[in-house]
Structures are given as C-alpha cells and as structure tokens.
Specification:
The complex is a heterotrimer of chains A (278), B (344) and C (295). Chain A has 278 residues and is mainly alpha-helical. Chain A has eleven helices and no strands. In chain A, 77% of the residues lie in helices and 0% in strands. In chain A, helix 4 crosses helix 6, helix 6 crosses helix 8 and helix 10 runs antiparallel to helix 11. With 344 residues, chain B is of the alpha/beta class. Chain B has two domains: 141 residues, D-Maltodextrin-Binding Protein, domain 2 (3-Layer(aba) Sandwich); 174 residues, Periplasmic binding protein-like II (D-Maltodextrin-Binding Protein, domain 2, 3-Layer(aba) Sandwich), CATH 3.40.190. Chain B has an eight-stranded mixed beta sheet with strand order 2-1-3-11-4-8-6-7. A three-stranded mixed beta sheet of chain B has the order 5-9-10. A three-stranded mixed beta sheet of chain B has the order 12-13-14. In chain B, helix 2 links the parallel strand 1 and strand 2. The longest helix of chain B is centred in the N-terminal third of the chain and has 18 residues. With 295 residues, chain C is mainly α. Chain C has one domain: Orthogonal Bundle (MetI-like fold), CATH 1.10.3720. Chain C contains eleven helices and two strands, in the order H-H-E-E-H-H-H-H-H-H-H-H-H. In chain C, helix 1 crosses helix 11 and helix 6 crosses helix 8. The longest helix of chain C has 34 residues. Classes of the chains: A mainly alpha (278), B alpha/beta (344), C mainly alpha (295). Chains in contact: A-B, A-C, B-C. At the A-C interface, helix 1, helix 3, helix 4, helix 5 and helix 6 of A face helix 1, helix 3, helix 4, helix 5 and helix 6 of C.
C-alpha cells in the first residue's frame, strides 16, 4: 500500500494537470481572438464596408460585396435547407418510429460528419456543370446540404418535446394530422427550431471549402442567383495566402467581421434558447 | 414561417432585377497576368460602367478546364493548350495579351545579389542541391555570404502556366530534369513546398527565410523580393527586365495560332525564362451581348491596354504581332457575324 | 405525405452524393484497382500517374498528431470541468469552449499561417530538433505536418471535450461515491471508477474528433505546405486528401485526373462515414437513448 502522502500528492498533481488542460485549451483561443480583434480593428474603415476590392497591388477598397455575398448565399441555402431539414425533422418525430424513420435518422447522423469539401465536389458536378456557370445558387445548394442533417436531428428532438396532449387536443377537434403537425406542433416548437436554424446558419456562414468551386468569387456586387458571387470566407482565404501586406490586413479585418457575424448568430441562438426554457 | 419564405423570395427576385442591367462577363485562369488583368478589368469598367468583367485567378490549369467545360465566358493561361486539350475545345482561340518573365526569387536578407547557372537551378529544384553554401552556388557567387542553411524550395500547388514556362525551361537546359519531373502545368516535384497561385508562392517565399521560388516578375517587383541573375542561351548573365523579355521574343517565330514557347531563347540580352500569356475565347460566341462586349474589350486590351503594361512590369506585345492579333480578333463572330468588322 | 417526402429527401441527398462520387471516381478506381491506387506513392499529373498514398499518409499523420495532442487535453479538461471544478467555473468556461467550436476553419488557417507557423519556424522547431529524434529533423520551415497537426488539435478539442463531458455526466454518482467512501482520493475515484465506466464513450468522442480532423480542409491547406511526398519528419511539408481536392479539383484536366480526385473524395467519404457510424454507435450505447447530433 502506497503511503497516504504519496496518494495525496498524486491526487494533487493530477488535479493540477487537469486544471492545466484548461489553460492549454484557452491559450490558443485567447491568442486567436486577440489577434483577430486587434489586427482586424486596425484595418476597419468606412471603405471596408462600402467598397468592392481594389485591383491587385492598389491599396484601398473593401469587402462590401463579399459581406453581401455571404448573406445572399446563406439566404439561398436557408430557402432550400430549412424547409427540407425542418420537414425531415418533423417527419422523424411524428412518424419516424418505423424502419424508414430509423434509416433517415441514421443517414442524417452520418451525413453530418461528411467533410464539406465532398459536398463541394457534388455541387460542382450537379449544379455548376449543367448550368455552365459558377453561381450563388450552386454555393447555396452546397451549404443547404450541410444544413439539412443537423437541422433534421435538432428539429426532431424539439418536436418530440411538444406534449402529446397538445397534439391529441388538436386531433380531437377534427384538425387533420398534417395541419396539426404544421400549426400546432411546429408552432409550439418554433422558438427552439429558430435556435437550431440560427446555429445552422452560423455554421454555414463560416464554410469555405464547399464554396471554392461552386460560388467561386466575384470582385463586383452580385445578387443574381445564377452568377458567381463573393463570400467573406473565400475572400479571407485568397487574401491570407497572398503576398500583399494590405491584403493580409484585409484578411484579418474580414475575419473579424465574419467572427462577429457568426458570434452574433450563436449568441442570438443562445438567448432565444434561454428565454424559452425559463 | 411561410411569410418569412415569401419575404425572402421577394427580396431575391427584386434584388436580381436591380442588377440585371449590368452585363457580367466571367473569366478564370492564370495568376501570372492577374495584376495587369485586374487593372485592365477595373479600368475598362470605369470606361464602360455597364460592363463588369469578373476574373478569378485560379491558375492556368483551372482556366483551361473551366473554358473547356464552358463554365466561364473566357479563360486565361500562360501555358499554351496542348493539341489533345484543344480537341476537347474546338474553336477556342489563343489571344496573346502581354509577355512576362518567370523570375527566381529568394529570401536571404544578407545576400543582395545571386547568380545561378542552369545546372544549379535544376539541381535545387531536383532536390540535389539542398544547402545555400553548396559549391555549385558558391562558385558563381564568390562575394556572397551564403549561409550554411537549407534551401526551402517553393513551387506551385495548383496547375500553373508559370510552372509550365519554368519547367519548359528546365527541361530544355537539364537532361536530368527532362527525364525526371519533365515539363507541364503541374509536375511531380522532387522537393519543396507548394503555394497556391503566384500569390501563394510569393507569400511563402516572403515569409520563409532561406526560401527560393519562381514567380512572375510583377509579383517580385511589387513585393521587393531579390531576383536571381541567370545565364542565358548565349552564355550571358541577364537580369529579368522588360527589355530582356522583349529581347527573348524578338527572334521568335510565332505560328498562326500563337501557341509558342520563348524559353531559353537565343540572343545576347534575352532573358531565358520568358513567356507569353493568352486569353482563351471561343471564335464563335454563343451569347450575343457578351460576345460583342468581349471582342471590344480584347480590342481595347491590345491597343489602350498595352500602354499600361510596362508600368505593371509586363512587356507589351511586339508591333508586328499586334497587327496579326487584330486580324484574329476580327474573326470573332456572334451567330456567324463578325463583331468587330461590323463596327467599322 | 409531404412530410414523408421531406424526410425521404435526406435519403435522396445521401444517395445522390454517393452516386455522384461513384460516377466520377468509380471508373478510375475500377481501372487502377483500389489497392494499387492506395499503395502508389506517385502523384504525377504530367504523366497521368495518380497514387493516393502521399495524401492518405499526410491525412493520417496530421490527424494522428492532432489526436495525440488533443486527447489528453480534452479528457483532462472534461474531467476538470465535471469532477473537480466548482459549478460556477464550469458555466463560465463552457462558453469559450463552445466559442472555439464555432470559429470558422478559414480563420483557424489565418491564425495558423501568421501566428503558429512563424512560431514553429523559430523557436519551436529548432528546439525540438535538439532531441535528434527522426520525426524532428530537417529544415525548420514552419509549414508542414506539425503545423497542420497542431491547428487540427485546436479545432477538434471542443468536439472531443463536449462529448466527453456529456459522457462523464452519465457516470452514476453512486460509483464515484462508493470509491470515495472506501477512502480513495478524488483522482483514484476517477481512475478506478469513473474512467473505466466512461471509456467506451470517450473512445466514441475521440473517433468523432478524428472524423472532423480527417475531413478538415481549409485550415490544413493553408499550413501544410501542399507537397505530395512522404516524409518521416514532422517538419516536412505534406498533403492531405481534402487539401489536394481543394487545390486541384477546379483545374483537373481530363477524365483521369478528375477521376483520381473524385476517387480520393470517395476514399475520404468512405472512411469518415465508417468512422462516424462506429463513433455514433459507441456514444449511443453509452447514452442509452436517442443520440443527439454533436454540434
């Protein structure tokens, strides 16, 4: 038997190591946030939010079209992905106890782990090639495919939380099953589903890989669904690997804008969730 | 829920309408001429605000593939397409725009000047010469304080016309290179790091002390990277410059389809790794509006555009060649009708 | 009816992904044969020779480094938050950890390129080189397997940690209390009672983290050096499956290169899907209920 002192020592050491793990995890986060904020703030200007990119080697210009592009592509992704994802989720909760439901649930789980670059390849082959053009639509389709599985699974959970009695009351009043799902069950779970949508949107807005060969990029404003469109993430990538100091500064600033966008969405989702469960 | 969807749909439809009056022409390809192209497209947009030319520098390989697939309205490459590639894109024209030099740059703060023989250059990229103070380098640079540290070779990770010009040169001067990696837009590099685009290679060399890579002259100048002096075909040491690039093109025989290599060109002042860069457009344009706008832009680029070349470190096309290109531009048709001839 | 269609759409999406990958990548795989494709270490576009080994190797090495670094930290962190720290600390810390999970990968790449890589170049890699281990040799370039592995470690840390916390919470309090009642110190209770119970779940969490590391594209492309070679040293530049697809897919000329890239995609797809299935089964077994999708 080891001495009590030794055992206490080991206990203390392991506790210290675990606390150290916390520190190790927080250091990169702190470094990353600090740099994005400090270097990002330094490059922010009015122009940054209102202009399109300047030609190579010229300073000035901004990423206004990329900010709009990200919102636009994500908007298209929502139009496609939200009805699909939420619909599939409601199906799983309401009627998903059979083998088909099991298969869908399992597929959704597995799909949520598929690397996003793979979705990019598929969207290129299915949307870009037949349309003969890189487009916001292709980017939106790729992001929508990424949103569907997560949305489906979280919607299912939320819908399952809706009390059975509510559903039965509606059915007893003679409302059809389909309308019950839509107007009673979905409405009750709406707050939670909105939270899930916001989180899915936040994730989609931060994606780069599936946009590389779908939405491509554009140095002009574009809000036409069938044309190439700029996005913040692709712009950050292009600027980061470039040799120009001015572009590096812009990459940091664009990263700050992206983080603020993603952060606001996640925070909104959290607040929404908190208010609901209080 | 439904209202949201409706509002979003309406917004999309409305915003699309607001942008519909601008003509957007999409192109993609070479990063080698990206600095001048981005200047051209920006200038041209100022002259013709209703025409927007969106150019993405994804590399020459990407330019060739995407114009072949017709996912873009024009491509750009500084590697001429092979016969095999052209059979997949019948009717595609190579329109030379400017000439440039592929320069070898390095990052050694203590060494302001460096000379490399063709053998030494090939040796470095073959991974045979790995240290800066290797005798093969030291012999030609007796005064340089070469460090005893590793050379970090930087090459392209994407299919690149710059790579094509560079490896075309290496294959001409080094039998070992020809038998080994060979010439192409994307070769099997024996050594080094990959950077995406001229931008990426420049960025990596700039960040990496002891780095050495190849890129277009404009990128080296813009980023103030020191350039290696090379020994040319005639055995002379030459620095990359607009003059030495023009000298390389001076004696070249240019075929009717403009697909030509001018690396390792003869001439006392000729810079050995020079090359043309091309825009790739279909002779018969499917879209009437875009086809006409594209032809007019090309005409502008070959005239007013040439005047901006030197300021951005590209060599303008020789006069005789320009006259030939004019004739080619006049053959561009929309629904069988020549666009530029009609203008006259 | 509408609902069933929407539900089935998930299956259709999955089927379309598989069908597309098979259509583009299948013929080239069938032609070269899976095994010779996988074991070929040459990727030579000029000569139309395509081997997957450098990318498989790079993917495994970077993910391996990432796991090696992230696993102890994640488990330590999860233990600290569930077993040791006061609840106040837990609620304060959980926010930054979830923040870490939400940062887009291109921002990690930006940070890696401008902060981590210079740091590795000097002083980290020269210091590691003094150990004279074969994995720490060669020029300290900064870009390479090590940089990619570290960035991946940071990225998968929140994934593993959050699932590990969930798993640890399922450990019945009675187990812990029994050990403590027998006079065990807190660490001994964790080691003898908590960890064995949670082991399966933690393995599942690790596999999900691995799945994320294998498929990560942007951050890795930006710091790995993009060189299709196989080197023992972690300082050397390499390449991964998703990185080569990102770099070459838009420019692949000819059916052969496109096919080879799609075949790489197919490999990546198959591996991540298998890993996810296994991981979810493990985690589900622990939770003993409908599994929730990890954020």
């Amino acid at each position: 038997m080891k001495s009590l002192g030794l055992r206490r020592g080991v206990n203390w050491a392991m506790t210290a190591l675990c606390a150290l793990a916390l520190l190790v995890a927080l250091v990169p986060l702190a470094s990353l946030l600090w740099l994005v904020i400090s270097r990002g703030l330094a490059g922010l200007s009015w122009d940054f939010f209102t202009s399109t990119p300047a030609p190579v080697g010229e300073s000035g210009g901004g990423v206004a079209n990329a900010i709009a592009g990200t919102l636009y592509i994500v908007g298209i992704a929502c139009l496609i992905g939200v009805p699909l994802g939420v619909g599939a989720g409601v199906y799983l909760a309401e009627r998903g106890d059979g083998p088909l439901g099991g298969a869908i649930r399992f597929t959704a789980e597995v799909l949520s782990g598929v690397p996003s670059i793979i979705i990019g390849i598929v969207a290129y082959a299915l949307v870009v090639l037949p349309m003969r053009r890189f487009s916001a639509l292709a980017g939106g389709v790729a992001l929508a495919v990424l949103m569907v599985p997560t949305l489906a699974r979280s919607t299912e959970e939320l819908v399952r939380l809706v009390p059975r009695s509510l559903r039965e009351a509606s059915l007893a009043l003679g409302v059809s099953e389909w309308r019950t799902s839509l107007s009673v069950v979905l409405r009750t779970a709406l707050g939670g589903i909105l939270t899930a949508i916001l989180l899915a949107v936040a994730r989609a807005a931060g994606e780069t890989a599936p946009l590389l060969f779908t939405a491509l990029n554009n140095q002009y404003w574009n809000l036409r669904a069938d044309q190439p469109t700029a996005s913040l993430t692709v712009q950050i990538y292009n600027y980061a690997v470039s040799p120009y100091q001015d572009w590096h500064d812009k990459a940091w600033s664009a990263a700050l804008v992206l983080l603020l966008l993603v952060g606001t969405l996640s925070l909104a989702a959290r607040l929404l969730a908190r208010n609901r469960f209080r | 829920m439904k209202k949201l969807t409706l509002i979003a749909g309406l917004t999309l439809a409305l915003s699309s309408a607001a942008f519909a009056d601008k003509l957007l022409i999409n192109g993609a390809g070479a990063t080698f001429p990206f600095p001048i192209y981005s200047k051209w497209f920006s200038e041209y947009n100022k002259l013709h605000p209703d025409i927007q030319i969106n150019y993405q520098s994804i590399g020459s390989g990407g330019g060739i593939k995407q114009i072949t697939e017709k996912t873009v309205d024009f491509g750009a490459s500084d590697a001429p397409m092979s016969d095999a590639e052209l059979t997949k894109a019948p009717g595609l024209l190579h329109i030379p725009t400017v000439m440039g030099a592929v320069v070898v740059v390095y990052n050694l703060p203590a060494v302001p000047q460096l000379r490399l023989t063709p053998e030494a250059l090939a040796g470095i990229f073959l991974g045979k010469i790995t240290s800066w103070n290797d005798p093969a380098i030291a012999k030609e640079n007796p005064k340089a304080k070469l460090p005893d540290s590793a050379i970090s070779v930087v090459h392209r990770s994407d299919g690149s016309g710059t790579t094509s010009v560079f490896t075309d040169y290496l294959a001409k001067v080094s039998p070992e290179w020809k038998a080994g990696p060979g010439a192409g837009k994307s070769v099997n590099w024996p050594a080094g790091l990959g950077g995406k685009g001229n931008e990426g290679v420049t960025g990596t060399v700039k960040q990496t002390e002891g780095g050495l890579g190849y890129l277009e002259l404009a990128y080296a100048n813009q980023n103030k990277l020191p350039m290696v002096e090379l020994k040319n075909h005639d055995g002379q040491w030459v620095k990359p410059s607009l003059e030495s690039v023009s000298a390389a093109a001076a004696k070249a025989e240019i075929p009717a389809d403009y697909r030509v290599s001018i690396t390792d060109a003869p001439g006392k002042d000729a810079y050995p790794i020079s090359g043309f860069t091309w825009l790739l457009v279909y002779q018969e344009q499917a879209d009437a509006q875009k086809g006409e706008a594209m032809a007019r832009f090309l005409w502008w680029a070959e005239h007013d555009g040439q005047k901006q070349a030197a300021a951005l470190d590209y060599a303008p096309l020789p006069h005789a060649l320009l006259k030939k290109v004019e004739k080619t531009l006049e053959t561009i048709t929309v629904q069988g009708k020549a666009v530029l001839a009609a203008r006259k | 009816m509408v609902l069933t269609v929407l539900g089935a759409a998930v299956l259709v999406v999955a089927a379309v992904i598989v069908a597309e990958l098979l259509r583009v990548g299948g013929p080239s795989l069938a032609q070269t044969g899976l095994w010779s494709f996988v074991k070929n270490s040459v990727w030579d576009v000029t000569r139309d020779v395509y081997g997957a080994l450098p990318f498989i190797y790079g993917t495994l090495v970077t993910s391996g480094v990432a796991l090696l670094l992230a696993l102890p930290v994640s488990v330590g962190l999860a233990l600290f938050l569930t077993e040791m720290a006061p609840p106040r600390v837990r609620s304060i810390v959980s926010f930054p950890i979830s923040l870490l999970a939400g940062i887009p990968s291109v921002v990690y790449g930006l940070w890696g390129l401008f902060v981590l890589v210079p740091l590795l170049r000097r002083p980290v890699e020269p210091l590691l080189a003094r150990t004279h281990l074969p994995i720490f040799t060669g020029a300290p370039i900064g870009l390479g397997y090590l940089a990619a592995g570290i960035v991946l470690a940071i990225m998968i840390l929140p994934t593993i940690t959050s699932i590990a916390i969930e798993v640890l919470r399922t450990v019945p309090g009675s187990l812990r209390e029994a050990a403590l009642a027998l006079g065990a110190t807190r660490w001994e209770a964790i080691r003898t009672a908590v960890l064995p119970y949670a082991r399966t779940g933690i393995i599942g969490a690790t596999m999900l983290g691995l799945g994320r590391a294998l498929g990560e594209t942007m951050a890795v492309t930006m710091v790995i050096g993009n060189s299709p070679t196989i080197r023992a040293s972690l300082f050397a530049p390499g390449y991964t499956l998703p990185a080569v697809i990102a770099n070459e897919f838009a420019e692949a000329s000819g059916a052969q290169q496109t096919g080879a890239l799609a075949a790489l995609g197919l490999l990546l797809f198959a591996v991540t899907v298998l890993l996810n299935i296994a991981a979810r089964l493990l985690v589900r077994a622990v939770r003993r209920g409908p599994a929730r999708v990890a954020a």
